[in-house]
Amino acid sequence: MLCLPSDWKYTVSTDLTDQNRHQVPVDFHPVPHSVRRGVTGVRRRPDAAVRCYPRSYQRRRRRRFPFPTVRELREASSMVAMATSAYPPPPPFYRLYKDYEQDPSSAPEPPPPPPIDQIYTTFGADRKTNELLPSLESHNLRQLYPNSPNIDFKKELRTLNRELQLHILEVADILVERPSQYARRVEDISLIFSNLHHLLNSLRPHQARATLIHMLESQIQRRKQAIEDIKQRREEAQKLLGESLLILDGSQTN
């Protein structure tokens, strides 16, 4: 028969080794007379072992391994449960709309959209709402292709591309023969690139229209295909219904 004094504490571990001692200690209560058969008579899991340590030893272990309190453990478990809940509670501002079913006008109206000025700022740059393509002169750049409403884009792009190739070959020769003129040729190449980009940006409206036409044609084709599939399914369903009616009529006559 084994009976422990009331000034001792015990912890319960799930194995019989000394590797699982970092658990929250539980205050020991004196064993009542009905359970004076000893610790072995106390009902517990078969794979658990009762470890008994003096109070001084428990104090030393608490200094080395500070245990959380029961309140902290409960708060942590509740927070984890709320974070992992499949159906979290609704946000608190739903109380503002509790009278919406009785009086829809009781709900606050959404704020009006902010006014749109002619100039707005994006990433530190001022832009206009009309989104017009700025000219090369506004950036102090010389335009190398004719400024007319009817521009042959294919011809001008080929011309600029040919000039760019010639300037790159000249830069290779200048680096060997006249290195002092290198900066000027690089500026000419930069000007050709700027004209190429500006000419390509002038084609953006045509690209947008062509993209929109392609999207509309694709939608029309998909809808026609869907209509054909529906007609085919309808014919198959009507055929099955006719066969089933013939089978029913034959079974009734027999």
UniProtKB/TrEMBL annotation:
InterPro entries per the UniProt record, alphabetical: Med7/Med21-like (IPR037212), Mediatior_Med7 (IPR009244), Mediatior_Med7_sf (IPR044888)
Gene Ontology biological process terms in this record: regulation of transcription by RNA polymerase II
Sections of the chain in a coiled coil: 213-243
Assigned keywords, A-Z: Activator, Coiled coil, Nucleus, Transcription, Transcription regulation
GO MF terms, alphabetically ordered: transcription coregulator activity
Pfam families associated with the record: Med7
Localization terms from the record: Nucleus
Subunit record text: Component of the Mediator complex.
Similarity section: Belongs to the Mediator complex subunit 7 family.
Function according to Swiss-Prot or TrEMBL: Component of the Mediator complex, a coactivator involved in the regulated transcription of nearly all RNA polymerase II-dependent genes. Mediator functions as a bridge to convey information from gene-specific regulatory proteins to the basal RNA polymerase II transcription machinery.
PANTHER family linked to this entry: MEDIATOR OF RNA POLYMERASE II TRANSCRIPTION SUBUNIT 7 (PTHR21428:SF11)
Stated name of the protein: Mediator of RNA polymerase II transcription subunit 7
